[in-house]
Design goal:
- This protein has helices at residues 13-21, 37-40, 82-93, 187-190, 199-204, 211-226, 232-259, 264-285, 305-330, 333-339, 347-353, 357-362, 369-372, 393-416, 468-478, 487-494, and strands at 4-9, 26-36, 42-51, 57-65, 71-73, 96-98, 146-151, 163-169, 172-179, 294-295, 298-299, 435-441, 446-453, 459-465.
- By secondary structure, it is an alpha+beta fold.
- The chain has 3 domains: 1-137, Beta Polymerase, domain 2 (2-Layer Sandwich), CATH 3.30.460; 146-179, no CATH class; 187-297 and 311-494, Cytochrome-c3 Hydrogenase, chain B.
- A 4-stranded mixed beta sheet has the order 1-4-3-2.
- The model has no long low-confidence stretch (mean pLDDT 94).
Length: 503
């Protein structure tokens, strides 16, 4: 993806970001740092803004020289979406966003020692790390009858760890504090120095259910740096993979959401349909999560006429039964009473936090990377982007339902118009220290992958911003004002991922 680049001294970052946002017409989409001292002699803080104007993307690169204070003006007082990004920069690089209202550790918990920054180039991954023994202050709500309910980080079930601290009066939630990043894997550090093709395997496993969208983002960034043109058939097959991924996620998520209200028939129906789609994935690729299909330069495998027929037959049955499931939900007053007006994320809060995907569209934000920044072959297909305005659990459910129907239609268009020819091309060499980033629309929302190449086709810096990253803070806005038994329902309606944070 191309972007207008502005290089500035770090001291002017806040002023430059104000201009770049253009009175809110451009949203802060990602913010991260890079240790470029071995190459250029400075640290750099990048802020990427996207909008519907021209240019579609703007990138600010703020430079902090080695002989300057390692700090930059915080953007959080101007745009709440910057809060997590700046805390992460502070944790991983030791750069201080002065003026930030809350610099508690985010990625590195209190047991990590102060003054050790794992994404600096002089940090060795094999070095022993002493215990830090710090404290993590949690704000509390004061008042008569107010008490706290701690949940996690270890949960009943198989979900990953996350700690939620509820402040409540009776069952009414007053405030929610969420502490995450318990199992950070250090993927961005682990891929430093790897050949570009080898990192593909790590990218595919950032998140179990977003394998295709993450791999597409990475592949597009590499192909942009290499100046490679993916053949048309490969582009169409990439869209096919992405929409099959969206389908099994949305169908399964709707069934899973029914578990939040104890609607067993909906849970079983959704699980059965998801299983049919995942078995289709396995028949096509040998993998239920569609891993190994997308690769640099195109796709690893073609589909045969029998495979295409299998896809069509499976989707015909799933689409019919999915309509039956939606009928059960739309005509169930008890179910509707639980999801309507529950867990509301207001439009302005969604805008301020930079929320993406289903959660954004349920709160009235009309955005979809497939349409707004078309990639692969999405320009060739006709589809609608559902947008609701109530911002509640119901809206997030109906967005998924409408999108699942649209995905099935896109798959049909792909199969009806699949071009002939090659499905993969060889990549030209990548110029050292060139950069590129790519956006794709995962089932949860937009993923952004940014790359800087190193010498001899290796990775110098890899940054990943998943859809769950900007959406997790929205959960703490949607939960207050509801009762605590509704929290599992609200949480499921966002369908947030822990692993996408622990990259």
């Amino acid at each position: 993806m191309t972007s207008a680049l502005q290089v500035i001294p770090a001291a002017t970052l806040r002023a430059a970001a104000t201009v770049a946002s253009h009175n809110g017409q451009y949203r802060l989409t990602a913010m991260f740092a890079n240790d470029e001292r071995p190459v250029h002699g400075y640290f750099a803080v990048y802020a990427i803004f996207t909008g519907k104007g021209e240019p579609a993307c703007k990138t600010i690169k703020a430079i902090i020289k080695q002989d300057e204070p390692l700090e930059f003006p915080s953007l959080t007082p101007l745009m709440a979406a910057a809060a997590w990004y700046e805390r992460e920069i502070h944790d991983l690089f030791g750069l201080v966003p002065f003026g930030h209202p809350d610099l508690r550790p985010l990625v590195l918990h209190e047991n990590w020692p102060h003054g050790l920054y794992p994404l600096r180039k002089d940090f060795r991954p094999d070095m022993p790390v002493p215990e830090g023994g710090g404290q993590y202050p949690v704000p509390s709500v004061q008042g008569e009858g107010v008490f706290e309910v701690p949940v996690g980080p270890i949960h009943a079930g198989i979900i990953e760890p996350g700690h939620f601290r509820f402040s409540q009066a009776g069952e009414n939630i007053i405030n929610l504090e969420a502490k995450l990043f318990f199992t950070h894997r250090g993927i961005e550090k682990a891929v430093e120095g790897l050949p570009l093709p080898m990192a593909l395997y790590r990218t595919e496993r950032i998140c179990g259910v977003c394998s295709v969208s993450n791999t597409l983002s990475y592949a597009h960034a590499v192909e942009t740096m290499a100046g490679a043109e993916v053949p048309a058939r490969g582009q169409y097959l990439r869209v096919l993979a992405a929409e099959l991924e969206r389908l099994y996620n949305h169908v399964g998520d709707i069934g899973n959401l029914c578990a939040g209200v104890g609607f067993a028939a909906g849970v079983s129906h959704g699980s059965r349909l998801k299983e049919q789609l995942m078995r289709l994935n396995e028949r096509l690729t040998g993998n239920r999560f569609l891993r190994g299909w997308v690769t640099l330069g195109g796709v690893h495998m073609d589909i045969t006429r029998d495979m295409a027929q299998d896809i069509q037959q499976t989707l015909t049955g799933v689409t019919r039964d999915f309509a039956e499931l939606l009928g059960l939900l739309r005509n169930n007053d008890a179910f509707l009473d639980r999801i309507n007006t529950t867990g509301i994320l207001p439009y302005q809060a969604a805008v301020d936090l930079g929320v993406v995907g289903v959660a954004a569209r349920a709160s009235g934000i009309d955005s979809d990377v497939r349409r707004d920044f078309p990639y692969a072959a999405y320009r060739d297909f006709s589809f609608s982007v559902p947008v609701y305005t109530s911002g509640d659990v119901a809206a997030r459910l109906w967005v998924r339902a409408d999108e699942a129907v649209e995905s099935a239609k896109i798959v049909g268009q792909v199969l009806d118009s699949l071009p002939s020819g090659n499905f993969k091309t060889a990549l030209p060499p990548v110029k050292p220290y060139s950069t590129a980033f790519s956006l794709t629309e995962s089932p949860r929302g937009s993923n952004l992958h940014w790359l800087m190449a190193g010498e001899k086709g290796t990775i110098y810096r890899y940054f990943v911003r998943s859809a769950s990253y900007p959406n997790w803070p929205a959960l703490t806005v949607a939960a207050p004002g509801n009762i605590i038994p509704d929290f599992p329902l609200i949480n499921k309606s966002f369908e947030l991922c822990y692993a996408c944070l622990d990259r």
